[in-house]
């Protein structure tokens, strides 16, 4: 009986990990394919920012309302519907013949990503160890690495549309697995749902450390998207490589991120979450500094981008995990939802603004924008980690 219970728990955890692969799969698709997509639709380099903006406005809306969804629905239903939305949207987007049509179908992409992100992050932060949180985000890394890898393969055949079809079908398959697994999920009680109590925004912002933590997520998510969305274009334009080789730099970044999260999970029992965050930040600053140096040998940039990825790995999951030790459980889902909302603004506002700068000036300033953002993030993290533990009040 005990072995059966352990097996069922393992199967459920596997499904949750697969859901995070599904979350990651679409995130770097357009960035890695953008050089061909913009030629196909005859749009400018910075137009990618419009797509990013729409996806993350929708993500902000669904993320902000996630505590309300968690009060009304079981996590398994939120997960299933979100993945299905995303998969179908990708398949439909592969058939469009104008860029404005892609913008319309970006709406369900954002809605699906936001809802699943908060619900599963809350579930893991509340119920599992730091290692599980790191491994969960490692599977996001697997998804976000696999996406541009698939796209690099289809770009070799001069097709970005096939990449969207393949990824969309994978997501629909994962959604079906989630549906089949419904009996494995523990039913969330009324008492558990009451933990997602409604907290007004002005009151939530008064919670000690909440605003600081939100700004950290704003700049971290911006930096991650700056690397995931723009690194392929930077290498393509500045280093004169092929579409497929440029896409592999996106793969390299996310492969490094995945490795960083796996290592973070392995060492989380020996190294504190705060220390893992500091180590990751230090590696990212080193990578950004190296990126400002001009090398004649292109493979060196794969190493640099790998360092940036490994450094990125520990930051998000460990920031998410320490939430449970800094905020009362009644505040937890609200704080996490706001962290994600502000984080999505990093994708939806700061990264598109960077794209406008690249259009107006030159993408050659990319490493310096990255270094500037990392400097701000480092200062925010230093201030956040040195603060004493919160005393619960509202």
Helical content (DSSP H or I, runs of 4+): over 70%
What's the tally of helices?
A: 18
Outline the low-pLDDT stretches: none
CATH architectural type = Up-down Bundle
At the fourth CATH level, what is the homologous superfamily?
MFS general substrate transporter like domains
Number of domains: 1
In one word, what is the shape?
Answer: globular
- Secondary structure class reads mainly alpha
The string of secondary-structure elements, in order, is HHHHHHHHHHHHHHHHHH
CATH topology: Growth Hormone, Chain: A
- Beta fraction of the residues? under 5%
Distance between the termini: 45 Å
Compute the average pLDDT: 82
| Main beta-sheet annotation | none
Radius of gyration: 20 Å
CATH class membership: Mainly Alpha
Record field, number of beta strands: 0
Essential attributes:
about 400 residues, mainly alpha, Growth Hormone, Chain: A, about 80% helix
Quick synopsis:
80% of the residues lie in helices and 0% in strands. It is mainly alpha-helical and 394 residues long. It has a single domain, classed as Growth Hormone, Chain: A.
Describe the structure.
Helices cover about 80% and strands about 0% of the residues. With about 400 residues, the chain is mainly α. It has a single domain (about 1-185, about 200-380), classed as Growth Hormone, Chain: A, CATH 1.20.1250.20. The chain has 18 helices and no strands. The N and C termini lie far apart (about 45 Å).
């Amino acid at each position: 009986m005990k072995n059966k219970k352990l097996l069922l728990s393992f199967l459920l955890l596997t499904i949750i990990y697969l859901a995070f692969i599904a979350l990651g799969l679409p995130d770097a698709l357009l960035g890695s394919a953008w050089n061909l997509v913009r030629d196909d639709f005859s749009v400018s380099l910075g137009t990618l920012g419009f797509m990013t903006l729409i996806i993350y406005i929708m993500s902000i809306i669904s993320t902000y309302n996630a505590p309300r969804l968690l009060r009304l629905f079981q996590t398994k239903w939120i997960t299933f519907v979100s993945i299905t939305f995303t998969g179908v949207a990708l398949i439909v987007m592969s058939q469009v013949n104008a860029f404005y049509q892609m913008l319309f179908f970006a709406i369900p992409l954002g809605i699906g990503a936001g809802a699943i992100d908060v619900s599963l992050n809350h579930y893991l932060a509340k119920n599992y160890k730091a290692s599980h949180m790191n491994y969960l985000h490692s599977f996001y890394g697997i998804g976000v690495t696999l996406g541009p890898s698939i796209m690099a393969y289809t770009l070799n055949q001069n097709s970005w549309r096939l990449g969207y079809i393949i990824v969309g079908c994978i997501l629909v398959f994962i959604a079906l697995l989630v549906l089949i697994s419904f009996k494995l999920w523990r039913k969330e009680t009324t008492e558990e749902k009451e933990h997602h109590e409604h907290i007004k925004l002005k009151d939530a912002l008064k919670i000690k450390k909440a605003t600081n933590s939100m700004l950290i997520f704003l700049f971290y998510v911006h930096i991650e998207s700056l690397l995931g969305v723009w690194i392929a274009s930077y290498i393509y334009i500045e280093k004169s490589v092929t579409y497929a080789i440029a896409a592999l730099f996106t793969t390299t970044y996310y492969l490094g991120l995945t490795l960083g999260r796996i290592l973070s999970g392995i060492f989380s029992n020996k190294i504190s979450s705060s220390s893992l965050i500091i180590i990751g930040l230090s590696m990212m600053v080193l990578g950004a500094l190296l990126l400002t140096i001009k090398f004649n040998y292109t493979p060196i940039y794969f190493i640099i981008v790998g360092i940036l990825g490994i450094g990125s790995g520990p930051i998000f999951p460990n920031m998410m995990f320490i939430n449970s030790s800094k905020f009362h459980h009644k505040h937890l889902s609200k704080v996490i939802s706001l962290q994600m909302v502000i984080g999505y603004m990093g994708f939806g506002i700061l990264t598109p603004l960077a794209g406008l700068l690249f259009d107006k000036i030159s993408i050659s300033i990319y490493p310096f924008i990255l270094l500037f953002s990392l400097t701000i993030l480092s200062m925010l993290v230093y201030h956040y980690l040195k603060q004493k533990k919160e005393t619960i009040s509202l």
